[in-house]
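Data availability (excerpt). The following record was deposited with the supplementary files.
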Amino acid sequence: MRVKLTLIVVMLAMLLLGAACAAAPELDDQIDTIAQPYRFGLARWEFTTLFGGVKNLFTGRGDGNNADPAQVQEYFEITGRVRNLESQIAAANHGDGQGEAASLEVELSSLEEQKLILQDGVRRTIGRQILTVLAEEGIFHPYYECTGLKFNAPPLAFQLEKPPLLLVVSPRQSIESIKQVPLVQGVSLEEQETIEAEVDALGVSSLVVSLGGIATYPSFVSDEFGLRFALSAVTEEWLHQYLTFKPLGFLYMLDRAGIRQDYEIATMNETLAGMVSKEIAAAVYDRYYNTLNGDDGQEASESGFDFNAEMRDIREMVDAYLERGEVEQAEGFMEQKRQYLASKGYYIRKLNQAYFAFYGAYADLPAFMNEIGLEMQAVRSQSASLKDFLDTAASMTSRQDLKAAAG
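Predicted structure:
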């Protein structure tokens, strides 16, 4: 059964990431042609990863080396220092500071070696911690729940590695993700902008986004944004795999595969996974890490400017423009606001319909909170437990179900 479930998840991941969402066939082919030189080879990666090193992927399998919470904290502190050093090296090279860059690269190499030594133990440790909290919440795989057994499946498997990039395409006339294409991690900024320009020339809106995690199997999870983020991302990507066995997640899979388009279902699914993962991650952090001193790799923002409220206002105005068919006005407004946000210290490389189509699906985030996010919060507040909330929302098959449950 475990092998069968793993193969199912692989096929689902290929559908989720490898297929067009809802673009017309001709447009779909044109976008694929543009993206092809940079496309992430998911099928090949899945085969190599699962069958080349399957023994080492799964949390809780074998003895393996483990890390104590202090070492986990140390790993993410090192990761933050690595990120800062990479920025300093880039700045030094840009300014012809070759001598300074050389000394920084020596330090960077040393830190990367320390990371490599700790990485496998860190991965195993945080995975086991997440499984412990999931079990305490009564969250097990749907198949095993039905049989009365208690087992986490698909097995929690992830890599602390930079995820692929993602090309997101939306119509210009509305905000909706109609196609997503995974791209290899090494695509330069110049290449990203070239891809976007060529796709935009087809009469759509596009954006290449960096991901914090992606629900391949095993999942990719970035370690660049701190321990709290990693705990949440690992849990969220597993939940996406879990939800494919529930009505809501199955419909989301059909949306991603272009079989049954429903942007509201996609937003509900992303929002549910985000809300549940944040609660699990907070419980893990409070239990294992809250008493430790030190930085978890996250940088706090100290600003009186309300970015979240500003983004919600921008989205509301853009929707109004698009409802009136004023596409050029909406795009001009977004560029004006992008420059305004930059003046406040919030740099967004490209603010367009594709940006909101991607990030707007995460309605649990304050900057993108919408009616679906508020309705999900209402359902959570009425639920007796996190498991009750997950079961209720995961059984939904339409926005109407959510509205009815929210009251």
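Summary of structural features: The chain has 16 helices and six strands.
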